[in-house]
Amino acid sequence: MTVTDLGVAGKGGDVVARSSKVFVAAGDQIVVAPIDGKVIDTIPGLSGAVALASPGVGRKVYAALRDSHEVIEIDTATLAITKRIDLTAHPCPSSLAQEYDRLWIGFGCGEEGVFTSTGDLGQNRGLQDRFLK
User: Fold this and answer.
1) I need a labelling partner for 118 at 20 to 30 A (CA). Which of 43, 84, 87, 128 fits?
2) Cα separations (Å) of 105 from 5, 37, 55, 67, 95?
3) CB of 6 within 8 A of CB of 24?
4) How far apart (Å, rounded) are the C-alpha atoms in residues 100 and 124?
5) How many angstroms separate the CA atoms of 87 and 12, rounded?
6) How far, in Å, CA of 108 to CA of 130, rounded?
């Protein structure tokens, strides 16, 4: 086993692999590395990146930004933020799971809950929220 220091000690969060790249949520940034573990880029200026999710196919990664109360969509080829999902009404997203067109978001700044945003995430159509109690 080989261990590679990505420079995120003490602030590393979730990890997801997509398109031969590894994405690491690290507080104010997401660190991006190829499978060999050498840092190739960062997505800076984020506010509390804690959770990541990626569908089984495609070139998107979703990141929960706890402090700015949003989820962002990242294009894995360009590393551009292609969408922002405002979660002001449901603050502190803290965990994500994604399957097909459904993004499950765990949230809470003390009082937790889970909801799912459904809709065609790839087509920028409106999302519908359903809360699970």
Assistant:
1) 43
2) 29, 28, 14, 15, 6
3) yes
4) 14
5) 23
6) 15
**Alpha carbon distance 69, 45 (integer Å):** 14
Residue 125 has pLDDT above 90, yes or no: no
Distance of CA 120 to the CA centre of its chain: 17
- Please name every residue paired with 91 in a beta bridge, in sequence order, or none if there are none: none
Q: What is the Cα–Cα distance from 121 to 111, expressed in whole angstroms?
A: 27
> Residue for token digits 């200026």?
45
CB burial string 20-50: b at 16+ within 10 A, e below? ebbbbbbbebbbbbeeeeebeebbeebebbb
Query: Distance from CA of residue 53 to its chain's centroid?
Result: 5
What tokens does 54 get? 């990626």
pTM equals 0.81
Distance CA 106, CA 93 (A): 6
Q: Say if residue 17's pLDDT is above 70.
A: yes
